[in-house]
Amino acid sequence: MSHEITTEPLTAAAFAPFGDVLEAEGAPDKIINQGFCGRFHDRAALDFGPDGRAGISLFKAQARALPYRLEMLERHPEGSQAFIPMSRDPFLVIVAPDKGGTPGAPRAFLTAPGQGINLHRGTWHGVLTPLTPPGLFAVIDRIGDTANLEEYWLKTACMVKAPADEA
User: Fold this and answer.
1) 21 - beta bridge partners?
2) Which of 37, 64, 65, 110 has its CA 20 to 30 A from that of 130?
3) How distant, in Å, are the alpha carbons of 44, 119, 166 from that of 88?
């Protein structure tokens, strides 16, 4: 596993193996509300398993900075998890493919203002990492009685940094 990760812009194509990018880009799917609202319809594959239900929570996380020390990844085997920022501030998204029950090589994405994400069920990811206050997010995820969190502590921490031209 690499010990240094350079962030990349969050795009739907690059993020597709891990989840969905939530953004209102391009033409809306439908115009509603007497022509005053564009609806960008059904933009995330929400999955709460057979024993869960959807819940909306609010998270308020402390802002972090780049370079960022990545020591732990987690996943939610019972359901997807969507993060929708309640401000137009970018945030850091770290994900990794599954390699036989443990995380593979992590990737780091920087969101653009107005982007949110939906992590597919079972996707390894870093913790919520806003880069500026207030760090307030609406989170749509699974509510249920069974355990839905696995953590994996890296043997060697990785440093996540901005591309050289932004440092």
Assistant:
1) 117
2) 37
3) 19, 19, 19
Spatial separation of the C-alpha atoms in residues 134 and 157, rounded to whole Å: 26
Would you call 142 exposed, middle or buried from its count of C-beta atoms within 10 A (0-12, 13-18, 19+)?
buried
DSSP 13: H
pLDDT digits (tens, 9 = 90+) for 70-94: 999 999 999 999 999 999 999 999 9
Three-state SS at 12: helix
Residue with tokens 């502590």: 153
Whats the size of the chain, residue-wise? 167
Cα 41 to Cα 23, 28, 84, 120, distances in angstroms: 11, 8, 16, 18
Q: Which 3 state secondary structure label does DSSP give 21?
A: strand
Task: Find out whether 162 and 90 touch, Cβ atoms under 8 Å.
Answer: no
Residues 45/50/51/52 CA torsion (nearest 10 deg):
10
The fraction of the chain above a pLDDT of 70, given in percent, is: 97
Token pair in block for residue 70: 């990545």
97: tokens are: 């493919």
Mean pLDDT of 12-28: 96
**pLDDT surpasses 90 at 1:** no
Domains defined for the chain, CATH in brackets: 4-161 (2.60.120.480)
Asked whether residue 142 carries a pLDDT value surpassing 80, the answer given is yes
